[in-house]
Amino acid sequence: MTEAPPPSQRKLGTGMLILAWAAGLLLAAYWFSGVEERQQNPNQQPESLHLDNAVEVRLEANRQGHYVVDGQINRHAVTFLVDTGASFVAIPAELAEKMGLERGRSFMVETANGTAPGFSTRLQSLRIGDIELHDVDAGIVPGMGGDGVLLGMSALRQLDFSSRGGDLLLRQYQ
């Protein structure tokens, strides 16, 4: 017959089991948080295709049918939401301040929540994958919440864009 382990070993074994479960739960939470983030923004590292006379970036729609993509404004990392209904690139005021964007003339902006004040600004560069635009008109919108930047027509009109099979294809001719 085998003897029961001493109480100190049982406590150690129980403690190790609890630690193993806690570590497993933390790893699962970490993994699932990445899955959720990838579902919200499936274009975190957009790939570029270099053609003879163009650079092409293909964006996948997220679960809500929106095109969200990571990019850069003046070498600062941002997340864009493609919005063909927006006249210009719209940047939340807090984010614009962090990036050091200068506020220009004030103007009124029509948003889904009504009319709000905004300020004009110019972006030295805007980048999505290997597509890079220069001297882009934009607006700083104080009432806009979050860190997401609306990628509006002041940038999109400089590109050829089309929708194919649920993907959005951006093309910059060189």
Automatic annotation (TrEMBL):
CDD domains in alphabetical order: retropepsin_like_bacteria (cd05483)
Keyword hit for Transmembrane helix: yes
Chain ranges passing through the membrane: 12-32
Domain of life: Bacteria
Keywords: Hydrolase, Membrane, Protease, Transmembrane, Transmembrane helix
Annotated Pfam families: gag-asp_proteas
Example GO molecular function: aspartic-type endopeptidase activity
GO annotation terms (biological process): proteolysis
Name of this chain's protein: Aspartyl protease family protein
Taxonomic source organism: Halopseudomonas sabulinigri
